[in-house]
Amino acid sequence: MGSITAALDALDIAVELLGAADIEQLPAPERFSALERLETAVRRQVAVSHTQLTHLERYEGCPPIPIVLADVLRISRSTAKRRVRDAEQLVPRRSLTGEPLAPLLPMTGKAWDAGLLDGEHVRVIQKFFRDLPDHVGTVEIEKAERTLAEHAQTMRPDQLEKIADRLAVHLNPDGQYSEEDRARKRGFMWCGGQRADGMSVGKLVADPALRSMLDAWLAKFAAPEPDDPRSHAQRQHDALADLVRGRLGDPKLGQHNGLPVTMIVTTTLQELQAGAGHAVTAGGTLLPITDLLRMATPANHYLAVFDGVTGQSLWLGRSRRLASADQRIMLLAKYRGCTAPGCTVNGYNSQVHHAAKDWKHGGSTDIDDLTLACKCDNLLVENDGWTTRQLPGGQTQWIPPSDVPLIGGTNEYHHPERLLPKDDEKD
Q1: Entry pTM
Q2: Minimal CA–CA distance to 283: which of 373, 331, 350?
Q3: What does the alpha-carbon distance between residue 265 and residue 333 come to, in Å, rounded to a whole number?
Q4: Buried b (16+ CB within 10 A) or exposed e, 24-37
Q5: CB 178 within 8 A of CB 208
Q6: Which residues form the DUF222 domain (predicted)?
Q7: Between 20 and 30 A from 412 (CA), which of 209, 239, 363, 422?
Q8: Distances (CA, A) of 405 to 40, 58, 377, 410
Q9: How far, rounded to the nearest angstrom, does the alpha carbon of residue 87 sit from its chain's CA centroid?
Q10: Residue 377 half-sphere exposure, CB side, CA atoms within 13 Å?
């Protein structure tokens, strides 16, 4: 068995040779063949990388493999988790007792290993099986996997998707889905972040019960009125806004992370006085000041106001005094989300974290020593040897263990205004 270091060195040399090679030396028709060989080689390297993932092991003080992998390869944690999941489905495995096991998608894995499939092909096949009803038998599943793997070797992913759709109908011609099948597919999510105009696009897959309830609500509150210029879609949007607005701040909702279930918004005195610019919610949403002023009158929200020049906190408006929650509200306003480097978890879903010394180890709950961290990153400090400290400028620095290849530092994601230098800092 050869040395992986020697193999990687040889690969580096081969890549250099490829980069220096001139494809124009080939006749025009042959250039496509050369690119096809190159694509196959790239795919095979990806497959080899997935195979090597199955040999990674956690050691003492090491966080879960996807977390380390994301930092070492500088990829998102979601991408790292997907690669680990792909490896489990496409690469031969071993049982807990050491016995060899075939991949969960054996024929797909074989074609993947040969460099004949792209990641998009794999996504189509994975989605097919994810959406397949539970009542489809094992024999049919094995035949379907073999068929899709064979077609994927001669088709583009968009063509394969059409074949997968036809095959899904063939295996479930009556469209029979159990409650478990439907429950697995339900969901709501935002499709990316806010657009340049501040609007957001979401995707809702509603089960029959939610669809029935929404139909009843919209029939009343989205009904057309005389001289109403709004479209059908606009009326439904506004009816949903009324539904949520009527619930936020209701004491019957209880609390979330120690605070009432309502909006927490940050802005500056200068923006309020000008009536322009954007406030920021603890969910990371940019809210135009004009919308904020319009929403503030009837609502039960929290508004933290800062001086836009010095950053000093000036005022904390709230519907009623919650002394134990005041610090958390100001932390949400100050940090807006998890302070771990690169983390995008918003403030609503973050926890209060002692930056210098954890409370259970004698740390004090002083506002200058508190920061925000999501549940996952909080555990890095508690269980995996990370440390944090407050910098003079008020940011939180995360320091990884010395023996783990992770990236530390501060997080600028929730403060895009820091990404551009101020006028007096420009060269």
Answers
A1: 0.62
A2: 350
A3: 7
A4: eeeeeeeeeeeeee
A5: no
A6: 33-334
A7: 363
A8: 31, 13, 16, 17
A9: 20
A10: 34
Residue with tokens 């050491």: 98
Closest CA to 380 of 341, 414, 415: 341
pLDDT at 296: 63
- Report residue 189 as tokens: 């999510």
Size of the chain, expressed as the number of residues it contains: 427
In tens, the pLDDT along 55-87 reads: 887 666 667 888 888 888 988 888 999 999 999
CA dist., res. 289 & res. 276, Å (int) = 5
Note every long-range contact of 323-328, with CB atoms under 8 Å and residues 24 or more positions apart, other chains counting.
324/258, 325/258, 325/259, 327/352, 327/365, 327/367, 327/370, 328/257, 328/258, 328/259, 328/352
Show the tokens assigned to 403: 């023996």
CA separation for the pair 26, 15 (Å, rounded): 19
- H-helix or E-strand containing 221? helix 208-221
Report residue 78 as tokens.
């979601």
Considering Cα of 153, then 158, then 159, then 160, what sign does the dihedral take?
positive
What's the DSSP call for residue 249? Answer: T
Contact between residue 289 and residue 278 where contact means Cβ atoms under 8 Å apart: yes
- How confident is the model at residue 119, as a pLDDT? 93
How far is 84 from 312, CA to CA, in rounded Å?
Answer: 45
Q: Determine the pLDDT at residue 324.
A: 58
Question: Please, is 255 exposed, middle or buried when counting C-beta atoms within 10 Å of its C-beta (0-12, 13-18, 19+)?
Answer: exposed
pLDDT at 287: 87
User: Are 64 and 85 within 8 A, CB to CB?
Assistant: no
What integer pLDDT is reported at residue 323 of this predicted model? 44
Domain positions in the chain are 30-175, 206-223+231-245, 259-328, 337-415
Query: Which residue ranges in the chain fall short of pLDDT 50?
Result: 298, 319-323
Residues 6+ apart with CB under 8 A from 44: 113, 114, 115
Give dist(CA 419, CA 317) in Å, integer: 29
* pLDDT (0 to 100) of residue 189: 92
